[in-house]
Automatic annotation (TrEMBL):
Name of the gene encoding the protein in the UniProt record: Bm5317
UniProt keywords, alphabetically: Nucleus, Transcription, Transcription regulation
Natural source organism: Brugia malayi
Intracellular or extracellular location(s): Nucleus
Highest taxon of the lineage: Eukaryota
Name of protein: Uncharacterized protein
Keyword Transcription regulation attributed: yes
Length: 248
């Protein structure tokens, strides 16, 4: 290290005497600065990519290999669900819960469907609740609820893959999602018939009841709000028996 410092010191002194050596010294200094800058930039890129790519969750909507089955494309469970949903959304009775549905993502075996529950007030549609439903092989497997003014998040800027794990920034809607998935797993999935439009319509009617939790009183404390939350624990078939979490 000492020998290198002596050489650099001699190089600097020679540059102060000889103009050609001075020019060579300036070029060497510029090249050294350029290499150091590039090295720091590459380290910053590596840290950035490690943070973004390493922690990024994969979307459930990634393409899956189609397993062998006797189903044709027109008779697969996913296609049957889509046909049934089309019938449900065209049903005039569905307007009673102000249901509006659209596909955010769609593939052969799965789909992401956005449902809006609302009301028509003065001939204007007012959304009260947004729900995202993950459907795999014709069966709803997961739902996520957010506030009516919130938007869904995407995995990357400009990407069409929705980040289904991104929760609402409001606690009440996060707790709604938890309760909705409990009902989905315990009571809805075991008995749902994707071929029956009336069954699917009934399921969506059940989820629509979450949009009215701010009008329901707790059967114990007789209040709507407690700890800044409405009663979220209830039987979907009878929301009037709702309870606050702290009133159980």
């Amino acid at each position: 290290m000492t020998v290198q410092m002596e050489r650099l010191s001699r190089f600097l002194h020679d540059g102060q005497i000889d103009p050609h050596t001075n020019e060579l010294y300036d070029k060497a200094l510029e090249a050294s600065t350029w290499m150091e800058t590039n090295n720091q930039l590459l380290q910053m890129y590596a840290e950035f990519l490690r943070t973004v790519v390493g922690n990024r969750r994969r979307s459930i909507m990634t393409d899956r290999p189609i397993s062998y089955s006797n189903y044709g494309l027109s008779s697969s469970p996913q296609n049957i669900f889509e046909q049934t949903l089309t019938v449900v959304l065209k049903d005039p009775n569905i307007k009673k819960i102000g249901l509006v549905g659209r596909y955010l993502e769609k593939s052969t075996l799965s789909a992401l469907v956005e449902f809006k529950f609302g009301q028509v007030i003065d001939k204007q549609y007012v959304c009260l609740l947004k729900m995202l439903m993950v459907v795999n092989s014709g069966l709803p497997e997961f739902v996520q609820m957010i506030a009516p003014h919130e938007e869904w998040s995407y995995l990357d800027i400009g990407s069409a893959q929705v980040d289904i794990h991104k929760e609402s920034r409001y606690l009440v809607y996060r707790k709604m999602s938890v309760q909705a998935n409990i009902h989905l797993m315990q009571t809805i999935m075991p008995c749902i018939d994707i071929r029956n439009a009336h069954t699917l319509s009934y399921v969506l009617n059940l989820f629509a009841k979450f949009s009215g939790v701010f009008d329901i009183k707790c059967r114990v404390c007789k209040r709507i709000m407690k700890d800044y939350l409405p009663p979220l624990m209830f039987d979907l078939r009878c929301p009037k028996n709702a309870l606050h979490e702290s009133c159980r």
